[in-house]
């Protein structure tokens, strides 16, 4: 009988012990905060986002108050959603971790740049709390930020972070990020002095030249669909644009002023995983010059008539972008002096043996806006620490103009997965401002979230 009692007591003790050991530690507070404490813009509209530490289980209300300076609501500016009594009412949807609103200038209004709006998170629904960055000053002019911490939003829906649907453009001096769906465009027409066309590497695109100039004469008999496959050990670098962003090394040759020199290309607008799209989804394209711009001819591969689209150059942007499915130009990159870095998935390259380099799709690549005059340098912490690095440390630093100056070097995806803490980066923007920048997290193994990397940066030297 004593043995039975002792056994029962032991079972009860072990049950209690196991129950305690299975208890998860309480989650940290879920905090709502602006992405930065200051922001500037010079266009007609800007988006302001409030981010939470994590997703919410139920729709969560947030109210934001606004205090304009030298502005009157609905006279010089308005918001979406509309404000009532200088308060904007928002709601974070269930399963989401952010919400945003837009500020728009009224048409025909002239401003002198001294105008601003002070926003403040006034209240949030339980169990969410107000975080540190609870106030934001929006200036109606370009600003030169002293630096901030920011989380990039690469997730567009419920996709995995490793295949984040957004490319995210970041303007350091304005504390502004612009997420754009990778699948929203197919071709980029260069606005510089040269006549060049880029394909959408962020969508895993590939292209193949056909030795014909009559687009109607090109059919599926002129190529093998599998020849367009790239990634996962498939394809050649000749099928994709230059990974370092050299505009003279695009798959599509420079557009000649002599029409007869411009060949037809087969475009696989979406790929990267070692297979091409089905034949019915492939396009044939041909680009000609039209004055100082372009004319695009395009059709599905086995169509016997083609459509045309004229594209006009705009020197304020690196490229004019076209969606073949929409048959129209679309907005993608911000103006060339309004972004410094682009984060996201893209075709890149990998070594497949001695002397063998193949195209390969990478997540979390970081490209600089080299065509817009941005440069970057990597600094190892053995030479200087991030916190201590100052303007006096810039002597002897060599900046790179390659788009992939940062690339994938900032993180590890094998072994100890996470941000590499032994390095940080210097970014020189087109105005000569130099920022030091380091990545904080990007993966659950380093305390982050895949598809939403966190980074911080600080102004080291203001441009002349």
TrEMBL record:
For this UniProt entry, which residues form the secretion signal?
Answer: 1-21
- Key words, A-Z: Signal
| Pfam families linked | HmuY
InterPro entries, per this entry? HmuY
Q: What is this protein called?
A: HmuY protein
What's the source species for this entry?
Dyadobacter soli
């Amino acid at each position: 009988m004593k043995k039975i009692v002792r056994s029962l007591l032991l079972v009860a003790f072990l049950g209690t012990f196991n129950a305690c050991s299975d208890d998860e530690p309480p989650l940290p507070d879920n905090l709502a905060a602006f992405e930065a404490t200051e922001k500037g813009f010079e266009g007609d509209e800007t988006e302001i986002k409030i981010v939470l530490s994590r997703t919410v289980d139920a729709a969560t209300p947030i109210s934001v108050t606004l205090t304009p300076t030298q502005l009157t609501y609905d006279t010089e500016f308005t918001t979406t959603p509309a404000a009532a009594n200088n308060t904007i009412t928002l709601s974070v949807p269930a399963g989401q971790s952010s919400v945003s609103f837009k500020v728009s200038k009224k048409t025909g209004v002239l401003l002198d740049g001294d105008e601003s709006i002070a926003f403040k998170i006034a209240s949030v629904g339980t169990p969410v709390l107000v975080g540190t960055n609870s106030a934001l000053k929006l200036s109606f002019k370009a600003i030169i930020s002293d630096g901030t911490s920011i989380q990039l939003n690469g997730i567009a829906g419920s996709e995995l972070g490793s295949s984040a649907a957004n490319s995210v453009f970041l303007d350091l001096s304005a504390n502004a990020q612009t997420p754009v769906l990778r699948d929203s465009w197919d071709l980029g027409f260069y606005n510089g002095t040269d006549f060049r066309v880029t394909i959408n590497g962020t969508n895993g695109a590939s292209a193949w030249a056909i030795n014909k100039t009559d687009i109607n004469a090109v059919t599926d008999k002129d190529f093998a669909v599998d020849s367009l496959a790239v990634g996962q050990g498939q394809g050649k670098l000749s099928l994709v644009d230059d990974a370092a962003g050299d505009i003279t090394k695009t798959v599509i040759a420079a557009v000649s002023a002599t029409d007869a020199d411009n060949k037809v290309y087969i475009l696989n607008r979406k790929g990267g995983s070692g297979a091409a799209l089905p034949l019915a989804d492939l396009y044939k394209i041909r680009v000609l010059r039209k004055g100082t711009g372009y004319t695009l001819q395009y059709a599905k591969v086995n169509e016997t008539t083609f459509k045309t689209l004229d594209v006009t150059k705009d020197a304020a942007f690196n490229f004019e972008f076209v969606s073949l499915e929409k048959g129209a130009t679309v907005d993608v990159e911000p103006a060339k002096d309004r972004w410094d870095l682009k984060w996201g998935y893209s075709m890149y390259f990998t070594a497949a043996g001695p002397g063998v380099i193949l195209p390969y799709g990478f997540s979390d690549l970081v490209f600089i806006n080299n065509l817009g005059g941005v440069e970057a340098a990597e600094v190892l912490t053995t030479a200087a620490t991030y916190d201590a690095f100052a303007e006096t440390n810039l002597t002897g630093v060599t900046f790179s103009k390659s788009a992939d100056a940062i690339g994938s070097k900032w993180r590890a995806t094998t072994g100890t997965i996470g941000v590499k803490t032994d390095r940080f980066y210097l970014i020189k923007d087109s105005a000569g401002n130099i920022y030091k920048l380091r990545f904080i997290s990007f993966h659950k193994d380093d305390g982050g979230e895949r598809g939403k990397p966190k980074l911080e940066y600080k102004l080291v030297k203001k441009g002349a």
